[in-house]
Every structure is written in structure tokens, then in C-alpha cells.
Amino acid sequence: MSILRDDTLNWIKACAEVLAENRNYLIQLDAAIGDADHGANMDRGFKAVIGKMPEMADKDIGTIFKTVGMTLISTVGGAGGPLYGTFFLQAGMKSAGKMELSLDDWVVALEAALAGVIMRGKAELGDKTMVDALTPALNALKQASQDGASIGKALQLSADAAKQGMEGTTPLVARKGRASYLGERSAGHQDPGATSSYLILQAAANIWANT
């Protein structure tokens, strides 16, 4: 089985829906250690992405991801725009010209997406950022692929690892971003970027469950 172009479009729609549903939750998380705008920014960005759906409908997966990335960069404020924009742009580069993705293709795309986020944000594992959700998600995806898991199973294992990584940001002291200004006071709060990363990967697991 493979992830088809329409599956990809459905994932993007699901991302928009889950970020809209969790808009206030992400705002609350960000209010504790940031500018209280992450939820509103992500919701606005993906609403703009949905507006681009008609022009993406007949494109290859790489072009879809690149369009998502460019749209997020131009519409999402704060750090979220450049970071998530880079995430999708890098995934798009590895998916260029493809009308479907195998599990290995998705591993390569997610690996490039994470590398782009790390390069753009200069963040490492343990810095209390989205990297703390994406890194274990990628590692779990690679392991599942090596174990011969189906795409659906692999994606759920990846999302589960992202959730653990997200929850693991709570006791951390932030070393990057606005939250780092709080020093020790940033401990005890879950990172909003790690949370939105988990939501996006869980949306992929939900939508691609039967592939």
C-alpha cells in the first residue's frame, strides 16, 4: 500500500481541522511560556492553506507540500511560520514529482523535514521545542519501517512517539525561542510547538490508517 496524492490532500485538510479545534488549547499553552499566539497563528496559516486547495488538487505530492510550506511562511507569524514552512518545503523537495509515497518515501520526507527545522531553528533534542516531538517520531517511523510494519501501523507508532516527546517537554527548561527568556520558570509547561507537531502527525496516522 502507499500514500496517494488524495491521501496527502486529506491529511492537509485534517491538519487544518485539528489545529482549528485545538486553537484555544495551543493559545493557552503558549500563554504560559510564549506570546500566546501559536494557536491563532497555526489556525490562520492552515486556513490560508485550505484556500489553496483548488490549485493543489491536480499537483504532485512534492508540489502540494511546497505550496503548503510557502503559504505557511507567508501567513504564519512568530517562529511557527518559518519552522513549519521549512518542514513542508523540505518534505516537498524529497517528494518532488511523486504521485504516491511508500513508507520509505515518507521516512525520507520526514527526515528531511526535521533536518530543515533543526537547521532553521538551531534547536536540539531537549531544548523544549517541536524537535522534541519530531525526533522520536522519526526514530519510531524508521524502526517500524525496518520491522516491516504497514504504513498505518508505522504512522501510529510515530505519532505515539511524538506524543511521548511532547509530554516530555513539560519538565524541561527551554533553551530556544521566547520560552527560553523565562529560564527555570519555563519548566512545568508543555511546549506548544511540540504539541502542534504531535497533532499534525496524529492527523497523518488517522487519515492514512488504512494505507
State the main characteristics:
211 residues, mainly alpha, Serine Threonine Protein Phosphatase 5, Tetratricopeptide repeat, 68% helix
**CATH-defined superfamily:** DhaL domain
Secondary-structure-based class equals: mainly alpha
| Total helical segments | 10
What is the tally of beta strands? Answer: 2
Describe this structure in words.
It is a single chain. This protein has helices at residues 5-21, 23-33, 38-51, 53-56, 61-75, 80-94, 103-121, 131-146, 151-167, 192-207, and strands at 3-4, 100-101. The protein has 211 residues and is mostly helical. It has one domain (3-207): DhaL domain (Serine Threonine Protein Phosphatase 5, Tetratricopeptide repeat, Alpha Horseshoe). Strands 1-2 form a two-stranded antiparallel ribbon. 53% of the residues are buried.
